[in-house]
Amino acid sequence: MKTNDQLMEAETIIRWDESSEEAVLWTASIVVRKQWKSFGFEVGETAGGKGWACRVPIDRITYKPLKGKA
What we know:
Layout: H1 4-9, E1 12-15, E2 22-27, H2 30-38, E3 44-45, E4 52-57
C-alpha cells in the first residue's frame, strides 16, 4: 500500500492554451498512464523516466458539472 506522500507524488498535469490545437498531458501515475493508453492516446516515457506524456487534440478536454450542481 502506498503512503499518502507517495500518492501525492503521483500527480497529473493537463496543460493547454489558446495558442495550440493540442493539450499536453503529463503524469507520474501508472494508473493514469494505463487509462490514457486504453483511450488510444500515444503515451511515451518522459526524459529521465519519471513520468509519461502525450499530446491530444484540445477538443478531447471536456468538463462535467459537479454532482448536485446545476
